TrEMBL record:
Catalyzes the phosphorylation of hydroxymethylpyrimidine phosphate (HMP-P) to HMP-PP, and of HMP to HMP-P. Its EC number is 2.7.1.49, 2.7.4.7. Residues 47-296 form the Pyridoxamine kinase/Phosphomethylpyrimidine kinase domain. Residues 1-48 are annotated as: Disordered. It comes from Oerskovia enterophila. The keyword Kinase applies. This is Hydroxymethylpyrimidine/phosphomethylpyrimidine kinase.
Amino acid sequence: MSLAATAPVLPTPTPAPAPGTRGATEHGVSPGAEPSRPRVLSIAGTDPTGGAGIQADLKAFAAHGAYGMAVTTALVAQNTHGVRTVHVPGADFLTEQLDAVSDDVTIDAVKIGMVADEPNARAIAAWLRRVQPPFVVLDPVMVATSGHRLLDEEAEQAVRELVALADLVTPNLPELAVLVGEQAATTWPDALAQARRLHAASGAVVLLKGGHLTGEESPDALVGARGPDDVTTFSAPRVDTVHTHGTGCSLSAAVAALRPRRDGWESATRDAKTWLTGALRAGGALAVGTGRGPVDHLAHLPTLGRQVFSEEAWERIEGWREAVESMGFVRALADGSLAVEDFGFYLAQDAAYLAEYSRVLSRASQLAPTPEARQFFAGAAVESLEVEQALHRDWLGEHAGMDRGAVESVDPSPVTAAYTNHLHAASNGSYAETVAALLPCYWLYSYIGDVLVRRAGDLDGHPYARWISLYGDPAFQEATRTACSFADEAARWASPAERERMLRAFELSSMHEYLFFEQGLTRPTWPEAPVGGAEK
Ligand SMILES: Nc1ncnc2c1ncn2[C@@H]1O[C@H](COP(=O)(O)OP(=O)(O)O)[C@@H](O)[C@H]1O
Ligand SMILES: Cc1ncc(COP(=O)(O)OP(=O)(O)O)c(N)n1
């Protein structure tokens, strides 16, 4: 069945407004006012797997804050292994698409990619002459990396003519060679010389791409941006990856999206190149296809669509939270029936715990990426050693007859040692894991503080009034919120694997919190060493 047979009946085209009046009549924008985003059009072929062509262009536009539009030159059946077939709807239909856009929408920049054949190239050239968009970027796509031609050989001359209508042309080395009618350059200086010749012949600024070279760097260069002999080189480390499908499409689209908001090609190219290097690094993790996969156009927005870390972490420990809330130790502490010996055991272990917790807080301060976080964790380390331990010493001195030396030499129980070992292990990992492991001590304590305050009611005469009000202290709740925000910030930049390690560290610390409270009633001790020769 032909495409024409299935096409819906189109409404009569809206008559074109007089040139120069579109900006004044577009919805929501008063005459002369700047629209909120540049309106950028891609004229290109398709890639149903989303890595190249108009699909890549639209992602690159969005990644740079532009409003994307797309007109299709060719429908390409391709995937990460290569191109299978190309269907070209034809130059007349291409012109209809182009006019449908330009009759209605003010276009701030155009990016042209695969034109497919000569009639299409001529239709685009005629439309460009008619509409005269302010910025035209041409990526002279000819051959896919898989080796499949994306441009008829007869169309090469027509593409040379398109170059003269473009403001910026972005050839890779083989495309540059075709455009100047020479052999492909194999060195960067030879490629630059060819780019200069192309600029001299066409007048277009040339963004020469060095992706096809080898070496530590993948350089690009703008030739002719500020005058005939001007060359600006943009260097970036060569990313060791096979996932480079659509890099040329994405780079040229990003430059087109940025140009309307920049004062020249240099600034737009510099930012686009930096973005592309990040997108190349993150491409493999997308796991799209089994061949040469695409780049990650959203690599600079790693948390987009993800739940906030602390929300997810809190949901994960729902079971531990409920268990802590309903445990005997917490109930007895709230109603004041907890035996002094049990509380004394718990508090002595808490003093031993705080000595190690303070070390891990210092480690978090050392690893922290910002001065605010460094200060917060360093302050917390001092606080847990000086202020909190002094309170423990006072109570244990008064109720258990323990002097300072006795409190400081308390042997950690197996439960306390397991918890602090876990914290130290996490602090051998990243800052993000360390903060995640530290967080439940803040959060579960302030949570239980609330529960205790509510359950205990009037604290007058309550044997544990001082402790209950300490846990419920608004300053402690505030510190908990700050610690949460540092964990969320760290998670924002974490890879999926690191985020999972953070969640696991948080979950394990929560389990240790439960066991820590529980030991107030069970008072666990280390087993005696087995006597030699004991029966098996
Ligand atoms: N492995 C890589 N590491 C870093 N940048 C790369 C890599 N491969 C390509 N690039 C960059 O991607 C962009 C497209 O380059 P290139 O591969 O030459 O063009 P095309 O995709 O049109 O063949 C350029 O900015 C180039 O420097
Ligand atoms: C529809 C379409 N347009 C262009 C290309 C080529 O993309 P490019 O960025 O040059 O990357 P490669 O995938 O060829 O390396 C394409 N494949 N499809």
